[in-house]
Amino acid sequence: MIVKTSLKTLDQLPFNRPATIVKLTSEALSFRQRLLSMGMVPGAKIIVRRAAPLGDPIQIEMRGFNLCLRRSEASAIQVEEC
Predict the structure, then answer these.
(1) Whole-angstrom distance, CA of residue 2 vs CA of residue 12
(2) Is residue 2 in some structural domain?
(3) How many domains are contained in the chain?
């Protein structure tokens, strides 16, 4: 039996749905080191909690802390819904 996984970017993830980081895409090259130093490594669990009133930035929860990311940064993080 083949199980189809749903890969998305972090900016496409619905609110309050847990996901696992799969990889940082090539669009993240300019800020990749900053994301890695914040713990955004493949295998980390992540949840999008809410967005600002105009939609940008978004608040995420990961490893017990909250963090805000621009949607352009979130679009460079590929995740798989749990």
Answers:
(1) 24
(2) no
(3) 1
The three-class DSSP label of residue 72 is helix
Spell out the per-residue pLDDT of the chain, length 82, in tens: 555 567 899 999 999 999 999 998 888 788 888 888 888 899 999 999 999 998 889 999 998 899 999 998 999 999 999 8
If one counts every other C-beta atom within 10 angstroms of the C-beta of residue 58, the result is 21
Any idea what the CATH number is for the domain that residue 53 is in? 2.30.30.90
Q: What is the pTM of this model?
A: 0.82
Q: How many Cβ atoms sit within 10 Å of the Cβ of residue 39?
A: 14
Residue of 16, 31, 17, 19 whose CA lies nearest to 76: 31
